[in-house]
Amino acid sequence: MRNAVSNVHFQVLARPNALPRARLGLVVGKRTDNRAVVRNYIKRTIRETFRLNAQSLAGLDLVVRSRQAFGRKERVAVREELQDLFARIRRRCPV
Question: What is the pTM of this model?
Answer without folding.
Answer: 0.92
